[in-house]
Amino acid sequence: MPIGLAVSTVIFALRPDSSRPDEPSILSIPLVRRTRDPFAGRWSLPGGVADDDESLADTAARKLYETTQLAPAYLEQLYAFGDVDRAWSGRVVSVVYWALVRSELADQAAEGENVRWFAADELPDLAFDHNRIVEYALWRLRNKMEYSRIAHAFLGETFTLAELRRVHEIVLQRTLDPANFRRQIESSATVVATDEVVSGGRHRPPRLYRYDTTIRLADNGPLGG
Amino acid sequence: MPIGLAVSTVIFALRPDSSRPDEPSILSIPLVRRTRDPFAGRWSLPGGVADDDESLADTAARKLYETTQLAPAYLEQLYAFGDVDRAWSGRVVSVVYWALVRSELADQAAEGENVRWFAADELPDLAFDHNRIVEYALWRLRNKMEYSRIAHAFLGETFTLAELRRVHEIVLQRTLDPANFRRQIESSATVVATDEVVSGGRHRPPRLYRYDTTIRLADNGPLGG
DNA sequence: CCAAAAGTGTTGAGGGTACACCCATGA
DNA sequence: TCATGGGTGTACCCTCAACACTTTTGG
């Protein structure tokens, strides 16, 4: 019997917590409820069998769309999980991706009986080894957030530095000095100031920034460093 | 037709260059000559079809042993390559690992008509997308060498700091300040001094060091951080 | 004017690099 | 005693964290 090949994706977005609607958004991931054994009724990562005439990344993006009706702003391969006993019915190797989607869009994302968003840090017991996979994806996201510039993928076309900083703070779970954060971002030169500012707040209007045009959908991997 | 699943390994060792036997060792990888189409006669990474009742890492280690009669001192998953057209006969997804083996052992490693060691930076045109894979593995190795402490995997049980420094220099292709290298390693606390020194050189006998006992065969991945 | 967040300036600690210098050995 | 690499000390630079301070808006 040949080894089965599956593709799953850990999808991250910042969403308001439904139980605390006035609090700031929290890091969330969508899960799908399994309808079949093994683990019927349990929540699991969106995914499925790899398609014959699609690259693995394309399959991941397609599954992501089928689950959330969203397109990823960032997509990267996480790991290939291949332990012998990880699937409970035959041997299955899962190539897992992780993705970031825009938070404003994620608000409107499909949710239903069998698709629901969960706080990334408070998941129930998932099917298979999916808890371990999410933990690893979380570790990668937080790691990458510190040395890379991917936070913009959670935001829209333009954003203030305060918004960008909030993204970092939510993901990394600690407060950041606004002054130092500003200089860090500016020196990284990954972001360019626009002419516009946001008025309406009871304070000095912040400038809007835009991400540098050379954006790659899927970073890392053997392609772009 | 189901998607084929293969496991390949990029194996690194430091070996003396056969054409310049008096020069220091160079970063080398063993390749196997393909005997069948596609790419019959071309050199390629050791590997093969994934085994049903073996983890992917175990398969990688086994292929490594079958090719070189060696055991890896370090083994880590590199990437799952899954582009549609990368194999020229049907769809094949390759989970690729990279490994480090001890240099003294690699000297005696099997070499024959269909297995040969090449300088990692001067490879011929390989089968499939293996050139690109090796390039990525090289990038990962050099990257990891800078922030992690894996160089010892090229060496034996005990070693001098000069030997460890040479490993870094060969892999990173630049000279390192002995004084600063020493402090860097000592402050990282991954290495412990033994009582022994090496006499015989025309200079002050260097102390031997041993790696800290808590060694993991396969680092990274979802397991150990 | 006041509150609040935007944005700037300044200082000090820590890590890395360059390099001067002493130590221990074999020939 | 000299050459050679082992090993130590130190000054400088650069980055980052902390925090005081000025700016610009809405109320």
Describe this structure in words.
- 2 copies of one chain form a homodimer.
- Chain A is of the alpha+beta class and 225 residues long.
- Chain A has 2 domains: 4-146, Nucleoside Triphosphate Pyrophosphohydrolase, CATH 3.90.79; 151-211, Orthogonal Bundle (Arc Repressor Mutant, subunit A).
- In chain A, 27% of the residues lie in helices and 28% in strands.
- In chain A, the strands form 2 sheets. In chain A, strands 1, 2, 3, 4, 5, 6 and 7 form a 7-stranded mixed beta sheet that branches. Chain A has a 3-stranded antiparallel beta sheet with strand order 8-10-9.
- The radius of gyration of chain A is 19 Å and the shape is elongated.
- Mean pLDDT of chain A is 91; it is low at 215-219.
- Chain A binds chain B through residues 1-5, 50, 52-57, 77, 79-84, 91, 93, 95, 132-133, 135-136, 139, 221-222, 225, and chain B through 1-5, 50, 52-57, 77, 79-84, 91, 93, 95, 132-133, 135-136, 139, 221-222, 225.
- The structure holds a DNA duplex (27 and 27 nucleotides).
What is the rounded distance between the termini of chain A?
A: 38 Å
How large is the count of helical segments of chain A?
5
Query: Could you tell me the mean pLDDT of chain A?
Result: 91
Assembly classification: homodimer
What is the N-to-C order of secondary-structure elements of chain A (H for helix, E for strand)? EEEEHEEHEHEHHEE
Which strand-content bin applies to the residues of chain A? 25-35%
Q: Would you give the CATH topology of the largest domain in chain A? A: Nucleoside Triphosphate Pyrophosphohydrolase
The number of distinct β-strands of chain A equals 10
The biggest chain-chain interface is: A-B, 30 and 30 residues
Q: What is the radius of gyration of chain A?
A: 19 Å
